[in-house]
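Hello again, I could really use a second opinion on something today. I've been staring at a protein lately and its backbone has me curious. Can you walk me through what the tokens say about the fold? Take your time with it, there's no hurry, and the full record follows here:
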Amino acid sequence: MRVLCIILIALCPLAILAQDAWVAEFPDTVGVEERFEVKFTLTNKQGEGFDAPEIEGLVLLSGPNTSSSYMFSNGESSRTLSYTYYYTATSEGSVFIPEALIFVDGKMMKTEAGNIIVKEGYTSRNKRENDFDSFWGFRKFPQAVPDESPEDKKKNKKSKRNKKTYRI
């Protein structure tokens, strides 16, 4: 009995890692006129017959953009297939994201439906960029300084000539 328990405990992480998933990823809140993505991702299965949902209240900017990857590491393989759409919202309110459908091994899989809240003046993209910049220690570059006027250049040259340099 102990041996069986140990084997089950040892195999549980492998079962979790190898799970098949069909999920939709989108932000909870966006700003009016802000560009954002809605991404549908299939993990560890080969899908066909993807049926994207029609989302009312949003303007489609780009999509579907497809991406696929296959990784083989330490005897384990994993596969990911993604469909990405870029949208923008034109007015405040709540937007319903319906289920997306795909067929895997002859069975239909659905993502979970959800809502996106659209707010005036909200900028989630800028917040994420600032968080990323501060996390990695990036600094904003200073603004370009306009060229000096010819009069300023003459003054600077005169002040440099008056300096004396001593060698030791």
In short: The beta strands are 21-25, 29-31, 35-43, 47-51, 58-73, 76-89, 93-97, 101-104, 107-110, 114-119. The chain has a mean pLDDT of 76. The domain at 20-138 is CATH 2.60.40.10 (Immunoglobulin-like).
